[in-house]
Amino acid sequence: MTKLLVCSILSVFFLSGIIIGQDGTEYELTEKKEIKKAIMDYYHEGHVKSDPKLYNEILHDDWKIFYLNEKGELEQANKKTYMSWYDPNKNDTTLNWKTTIKYINVSNELASVKLQIENQKFGYVDYFNLMKIDGDWWIVHKTSHSLKSLEKN
To answer: For a surface tag, which of 25, 44, 50, 99 has the fewest beta carbons within 10 Å of its beta carbon?
Structure first.
């Protein structure tokens, strides 16, 4: 009887199209898809086009980046400073950008992401903290380091 009940419940899930993900819920799978799309549409494309307007769509106004400089010292920048580093008029269209999302972890309105973004000249490993605010996922914090610094270790 128990086996029949379990089989019936599983059949209902599969027949209704509900797929429960590795992390437990359909909600998490949906949120991960939204986060990945936002990162690729705005963060990745912001790098590809060197366009700060795209970052404005995913970086929260209170966003900050923390990174180690060439001397290994901690530095930080706010959104305005970060966006000033990019200029579409100086974009190098010969660069082939690749973004690989290593993981996305979602807990309700909070998420963390690890990704690697690189081209033939340089690359970075980035860790994001995101929050879902008013229905949209925003990167509120980023730590980053150069792939060159990984090669030293």
So the answer is: 25
* 81 assigned to some structural domain: yes
In a domain, 9, yes or no: no
Instruction: Find the CATH number of the domain harbouring 80.
Output: 3.10.450.50
* pLDDT score, position 18: 39
Average pLDDT over the chain reads 85
**Residue 125, both tokens:** 């490993």
- How high is the pLDDT of residue 150? 46
- The confidence band for 1, taking pLDDT boundaries of 50, 70 and 90, is low
Distance between CA atoms of 94 and 20, rounded to whole angstroms?
41
User: How many distinct structural domains can be found in the chain?
Assistant: 1
